[in-house]
Amino acid sequence: MPEPASISAVDEITQIYTERATSRYGLEDINQLQHALQSAALAEANGEAPALILAALLHDVGHMIHKLGENPAEEGVDDRHEILGAKWLAKRLPAALAEPVRMHVEAKRYLCATEPGYMDKLAPDSVLSLKLQGGPMSESETAAFIAKDYADEAIRLRRYDEEAKDPAMETPPLKHFLRYLPAAAISNKERETFRRDGVVVLRGFFSEAEAATFNRLSSEMGASADLLLREAISSGKPVAELLATRPDELIVVPEAADPLQICRFEYLLGSRPEFKNLIDTRIAPVIEALTGEAFIPFKDKENEKHPGGGAFGPHQDFAAYKSFGPRYNVTAMISVDPATRENGCLEFAKDWAGFPDNHADAVEERIDGRALLRFENGGPHNGDIAPEIADALDWQTVETAPSDLVIFDSFAPHRSSPNESNTSRRAMFLTFNAEREGDWYERYYAEKRANFDDPKFHVSTPTVHAGD
Fold this sequence. Notes:
Helix content is 43%, strand content 15%. By secondary structure, the chain is of the alpha+beta class.
């Protein structure tokens, strides 16, 4: 199984394409980088999936990592760049990217055999290399090729490859296309799982360096949140009053059982530009890959689940968001610390998709076809799914490591137990809404600062609010 796309993969690709892609592309008046960018731009313009856009970008990486010179075909040598490149990619990225690269030379041979006039369009260097690569396929070879997985993608890649030879064509820079790396790591099975259940767990998504960055940012923001809470307490002012005067700082929410203990802090993206950049480049593209459309930040928080505390009742996030504009939200959970049964990891309703249809009396309302279950309105269990409904759900624990990413939507029922370990457990929850529904992030937090105790901001949380 390939390693997940990571910062190191981005760095490797960037280094190769900035240091080794300045050589001439075959006999054309462009270099390897121009050819790669043009291929990717053509794939993007035709609405291809992230994996094929990247395959178009990287299909000739084998030319840049062998040591056979700029055009070995002129020396009568088949450099087998497609095999070399695909092996290099397969160690770093999924088959949906590596396989079209491996097959793009076969696709040329296939098209030469099956499409009248295709061979006449080949550039002289491509005709030369075709002879070394085996020439047009035989009838049996074409039948075997077209039956393979990724054959269609390889053929489309081949067409972009042939067209990407225009010295005057302008393209976005390399960085523009590398943003597709996180999304390319998503499989069709994971997309189907998310669309059916509203939850997907991406194991090993983050590199060690990325996990360490989240840990550092969490520690820094946690220290700032602790200072804000202590400042409020020492001044004798309610936390809400202090936060209303600090529009650029974190929002701190203490636990009901201990006003000196932070339950969570919010406004992470608004207060930390470094954090925002990491989310924009790593998390947002994944959500777009899962949903098929662009999503932007709606709200965020870090839960500080300290020993003995931090239980969150069974709920659906939409109960907290329904008074705002977006009709659908998606949340990414980052485990700053390992989340286990002992310290109160998340639990999701298993096989949730069919439950509303089989329990019509449990549905409060439907929003664009999605079911919101009956829930407590106000009181200490504000937002919790009604007990008899929660008891009927089949709950499944999801233990996670700092390298894992959990994505779930605003209708997926979830809960967590108290932390019964002797150490704290931190987790970040970054919530997004569809870009087409507008930018709500600053509006959400302006209202929260102005109405800190409103129960809609304290759904299924161990915090004090006006609904108690």
